[in-house]
Fold this sequence. Notes:
By secondary structure, the chain is an all-alpha fold.
Amino acid sequence: METFLAVLLLLGLIAVSNIVNRFIPFVPVPLIQIGLGIIAALIPTGIHMHFEPELFFVLFIAPLLFNDGRRTPRGELWNLRAPILLLALGLVFVTVFVAGYAINWMIPSIPLAASFALAAILSPTDAVAVGALAGRVHLPKSIHRILEGESLMNDASGLVAFKFAIAAMVTGVFSLPKASLSFVLIAAGGLLLGAVLSFLLIRVSVFIRRFGMEDVTIHVLLQILTPFIIYLISEEVGISGILAVVAGGIMFAIEKDRAVSPQYKLQLVSASTWSVLLMVLNGLVFLILGVSVPDVVEVIYMDPTLNNFMVAGYVLAITALLIVVRFLWVYGYSLWESKRQKSEKAPLRSQVITSISGVRGAVTLAGAFSIPLVLGDGVTPFPERDLIIALAAGVILMSLIIASIFLPLLADKKEAKVPAAEGVSSVNPELAARNVVIDAGMSMLRSLVAENPEPLRQPVLLEFTDKIDRICAAREDHDPADEELRRQAVEARLNALEAERTELRRISENGAISEPVAVKMEELLDHTESLLCQRLNTQLRFSLTEIQRLFSGLFSGKLGGAEGRLAVQNAESARTAKMAMCRAAISAVSDNMSEENRAASQKIINKYQQMESRLAQGDGWIKDGVVDDGKLELKLQAIQQQRNTVQEMYQNGAINLKVAGRLRRFVDQLETSIWED
Length: 677
């Protein structure tokens, strides 16, 4: 029960951290989560978790790196393979060598092998932290890709170096040739086995689908299990589980691109599921780091042999050393590359950004806690284990703080440019990005219509295109008269909805409609009112799933026996009630009509008259006792794809936060306009 409550509290703190970030956006979410974790550990009866490094790797690192592998552009990584490999391999081993000797010289109580172990776990950068920082500031695209590729690859090299250093410390034996050969075998084996296992699991999904099992829940569950299966099997074999899950993610993305007939429903559910899962895992990583800090600090504080100010000085010195070594390596590579290609050297600002962006995170923390308690004899304590853990945690915090302060100052403040759509100038990045978003929704809508070629669904493309054209034209014209007409129409519609609600309650009190159906119909009115309020610049949003649930719950029962008769009766009573509500709405709007709002009011009256006419003819309201609007569902799925596209463009650095906000408002306006119809 205690563990369950601790996990529940941590999940709640994830939500709190995102809310706090809205009020202090200049502080990155990881730092807020670390702070909340520290507070949660310090309060009376606070959280105190026993850290299991192996569980941490499989539970957090495996799915996070798998996701990074499957969504990172492979073409761009391949084009940047030279700097990525030099950072992920060369820089790691240089850092281990230089920082290892420096730590041993600075803190003689830490043996040389243990110093190399500390340097090894400090060498990998953290993909999660890099992603969190890159999402807050707009890094140059090439630097962003290099950091992503480096963080995907250097975990394996750093952890392999760490394991050999620990083995040398515990056993007193080390062989460079053997270590080098083992590293090659472990890395190559991890990449190969990860790709093979991912391919086999994809084939399993295809095999299941061929038997007619199209339930997206099964396929999404298999996707979620994939990184855990790959990691556990790879580690059991004795190769790099981290590189295996990265390779598995890349293979998953390749297979997805090769799919002849993409399953859009599966993609939608998968994207939503992974979005929630990744937000939770990312948050838990930094919260657990925060929870661990007080315990680490307490051990150091209570140790009489250690000077607390000296430990803080060690943390600052090691952090500075890591940044300097990284800068010199990046500067040297840039100088060599410019001479080789006879081109200009990369700007100094880019090199500084790359240097301070190498933040440390979850892998470093997990590695520090995995240091054994005793040496090979089973009796002698591992020298300065607590100090090593404290130094690792301190460097993680300092690297995050330094990057959080200096990256916004150094990063490009200009709006990002995205490739322009055909016939669109790239001078206007927002217009180009909007065209990308529109094309994404239209492409998906065409595919959905092709999969469902019923006559009623064919006009959906024309309707959707017309709606987009109208909104774009309105945004470009910015006619104050049109804006005032829209505002008056929304006010008239809200007035009509209140009249509908009053009439519905009167009908329900008279017993002409059952209570469950009346409740559902009033919920639909509430949703419509909220959507209209959104047009008045509120920030309310509604999920497609929730709205569909309301529709499907309006009429209960199947069309068979007593339940079927009840469903038909509910549908008929709801239809009759809705017609009466339309008449009440028309009367309310007419009573409030004036010369000023006559045009807008008449527009609303015409819509209600059309609705009443359709209901009187039984058209468009019921099909076998449930609401049927296939066109609406297709449009909303296309809109969800547009939202996903905006998020992907923002995460990939193609657009900045300001442009992403404008695009989201454009998509919100499109959805609201569709629901108003």
